[in-house]
Every structure is written in structure tokens, then in C-alpha cells.
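Justification of resources, computational component.

The compute hours requested in this renewal are based largely on the per-chain cost of generating structure records like the one below. Each record pairs the submitted sequence with a full C-alpha cell output. That output is archived, and it is also reused by downstream analysis tasks.
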Amino acid sequence: MRTSLVGACLLGVLSACKPGPEQPGPAPRPQVKVAPAARGPVELEVLVRGVFAPLPGKDVKLAALVAGRVSRVLVVEGDPIRAGQVLAELEAGPSLDELRQAEAGVGESEVALEAARARRLRTEELVRHGVAAQQDAEQDRSAEAAARASLERARATQETARRKVALGELRAPFDGVVLQVLVRQGEAVDGTGQPILEVAAADPVELRGTLNPEESARMTVGARAQVRSLPGGTSLAPGEVVAVAPAADPQSGNVGVRVRLPNPSGHFKLGAPGEAAITVGRESSAVTIPTQALLPGGEDGGARVATLDAGRVHLVEVQVRAEQGARAILEGGLDGGESVIVEGGYSLPEGTEVEQVR
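The structure output for this chain reads:
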């Protein structure tokens, strides 16, 4: 009996020393990053997208105006060119033969004119001495006039032949770049204006895009712009609006806009896409927040933001006036100075306790 009691006591002691089940600790709070809602002056911008193009009149196709075979093409696509540089040549043999014949004709006409002049002078001298008749002098003067006219015709033929030889050389009309080589070396051209090369000036260039009529109405010639290439271009170049179309396109209903910008390095490629942020006004005081702070779910399909106050989340309905790059301009909802959650705030309910991290 005594042994049983001792065993029972020992069993009770051991049971009391055995650790119980662990109690769960408090759940970790969600971690968020915040940024301030800023109030201050803001430049209002309109974003236009389009493609880079040469200035008007600075994209031309060089054609052969004489028939023949292309003897040399001295450039390839993408080559830079200078004004007056020879880009291609046609076989000059037939044209040079015509020029030599024309030069020979000029020489013969000059000799004939000199002989007619000398004959007229001798006849006039004989008339003064009464040896020759006045009619002879008149005939010699007519012969001299005919010789002079013949010389003028020969010189005109010579000049035409020279121009024909010159037309066998295609020269760059301005500084720029070769866009296309349309006829290769050895191919024949018919002389009716068949294009051989296409060249364009690449500095400056224009970004040509379109806007809807409402946005284009805010646009003015001379407005400043910041231009970049797409997709994902980081290099910005200053530009200027040089033209806004006076009428909308009947097919799309959009209005054309041209933004001109320098391109000395050739960074902006002709025909490549780009975009321009065009300044259309300025607000002396407006609230802006990072666009990544905007959350869906506002009233009437609007937006809201999650603010952080005393470690808790507060959801605020906001009215977005415009999004410009990485920031959104608000018309209402925030006064400026609030801490808005930019990371980790998605789907957090009102009043959630969170931990702010850097």
C-alpha cells in the first residue's frame, strides 16, 4: 500500500514537470514602404507618341535623268553623307562622246566666225576705196551674223552635253544619311526619273504624332517638350512644338502634332517610335503622389490610396487629374504631407497595423 502511494506521488511530480503546449505569439505585421504626398508647383503635360521623321523637304529620292548603266554606287544604307558628295555614277562613255562632239562644234564655229569677221572687214575697206560694191559688204555682214548665231547654237549644245555628263553623277543635296539604295551597281536605268538612292537629313529631326481634339486644343506652337525614344528610352532631349494641324484627320479623328528636336549624335533613328511630354500649363500649387501608390476600388471606378497614420492603414478616396511619368496629380482627397504607402499596401483593409520599412 505504501509503495503504491509513493509511485503515485512520483508520477504526479513528473507530470507537473512536463512542459505544456507552446502558446502562439502575435502575428507579424505587414511591412510597407511609404512616400510623402507633395504639394507644390506642377507643370502640366500632355504625352504624344509618334515616330521620328526628317524635316519637310529633307527626305528625297535621287533619280537618274539620263539613261545608262549604274557604274558605281559609293554608299550603303546608313552611311552618313555630306552636301555635294558623289553618291553614285552612271557610265559616262556616251555622254562624254556627245560632249567632245559639242566642243569640236564650238571650235569650228569660232573659226568660222573669225573668218567671216575678217572677210567683212576687208570688204568694208574695199567699199571705202570704191573697189567693192555696198552689196558685197552687206552680204559679208549677213554671213558674219550667221556665223555668230551658229557659234551660239554650238555653245548651247556644248552646255547641254556638259549638264548631261553632270547628271551622270548623283550628289548629296544636304548633310544627312542614306536611307535606301534602290538600284545596285551594274543595273540599267531608263532616264525617266527612276530613283536610285533615298537620302534624308537626320539633324534636326521631328517627332510626328497625333492627339485627340481635346488634348490638341491645349497645344500651342512653341511649347516646350521633353522627348525620348521607345521602348524604354532613358535619354531625354529638349524639343519644341513647331506645328499643330488645323484640322482633324477624317479617318481617325485625331490631330497631327510635330515636335522638333536636335539630333547631333544620331541617337533618335528615323522611323523609330518615340514620345514627347509637352508642357501645356503650370499649377502654382497641386498635390502629387507616386503613381505606384494608386489603388483600384474607388467610387465610380475611381482610385484610392492607403495612407499610414500612427502605424495603421487608412484608405482615402482620391481624384486623379493626370498621370505624368512616375507621379500622379490629384484634384482631391489629400492635402499634402500625408504618408502614402507605395509598396505592400495592396488589399490591406482599413485599420490594419503595419510596420514601416525603409
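The domain at 93-166 is CATH 1.10.287 (Helix Hairpins). The chain has four domains: 31-44+283-356, 47-56+201-281, 59-91+168-200, 93-166.
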